[in-house]
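One thing: mind reviewing this one?
=====
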Amino acid sequence: MKKLLSVLLALLLVFMATGCQGGNEGGEKSAREKAKEAGKITVAYVVNGTLGDKSFFDSGNEGIQKINKDFGDKVYGEVIELTYDTSTWQTGLEEVFKEGWDIIITGTYDMKEYIIPLIKEYPDQKIWFYDEEWNFADAEGWQYCQAPNLYAMLFAQNEGSFVVGAMAAMLSQTKKVAFMGGMDNTVLDDFYVGFANGAKYIDEAVDVNLSWMNSFNDSAMGKDVATGLYANDYDVVFACGGQAGLGGFDSAITQPEGKYIIGVDGDQGAYFASLGTDEGNAKAARTITSMKKNVNEGFYDAMKKHLEGTLPYGQNVKLGLDGGFVSYAVTDTTKKLFSADQLAQIDQIVADIISGKINPGTAFGQDANWFYGEFVPAHDSTKKPQ
């Protein structure tokens, strides 16, 4: 009897063990795996930072959510945050590539060096890379990469920045406006070039300062840089640096009346107003506009074309004012500070950029630091800064 009981107990333990293994199969399936089984296109939006910047990364997240909403029967999109710890970026990206997503979206200048080896290792992987130009053709050129399955979406930040630069010069009482950028790279240089040329389109004598925060996530540094600019009579500051740029708004609300700020990527003035707090309202009142880089629209447009089979992989595509991929925000503060005639002038500037009548200038394709000299208005395209 004891022997029989021992055998039965052993069989029961084996049954329980195998039963548990058969039921879990290594754990519950992920949302990506379930989407794959359902035949959906799986999309990973890989952020080299975190959500919560109220601008660039958050705009991309809005695009993913809109894709899930409108194409959810065909597509499943998910956001993966690598954080700002650069030491995790390579291993984090490698893991995403190993997981087998149909489309991987990532971007910014900082990510190119990490993704180039993976493009070579996974040549069939579909990739959407945003906010940076790619060298698809010149094998002798810088960062050449054979990537026929990569779609590069470039946002014409120089166009949108020209518009808000013009607005800054219209409003400035000191005739001193400033640009504070996160890190010195070509995309941020392009923001600055457009901003400076837009300001000088309105007034060639305006002083346009360039300052770097050397960070995209240090809001305390952003506040310090903005405070220094305001102290030196720069009365309109364009804060262009993700979460670091948010520190500029913290500084703006401590300044005397007449000191203003311009947001970037998202409609930051509207965001602050939506908080319904005294601090949020104060920041909204100092935000004259925002240069909107509508990453959400870029992602959504790419998905529509991918589903149609018309997305131009292996190419750089510029997305600008035409089509609303970059734009400027008009809030209650904008309407309060600018006259109807001034807003009409801004709308005309937008139309003239789209038509080609105004050349906003660009940092792309130029020698390093070419724009640090004295500016010549970009609408005279026969001239360059000295």
Q: What stands out?
A: Residues 158-292+326-372 form a domain with the Rossmann fold fold (CATH 3.40.50.2300). The chain has two domains: 35-155, 158-292+326-372. Residues 144 and 384 are 28 Å apart (CA to CA).
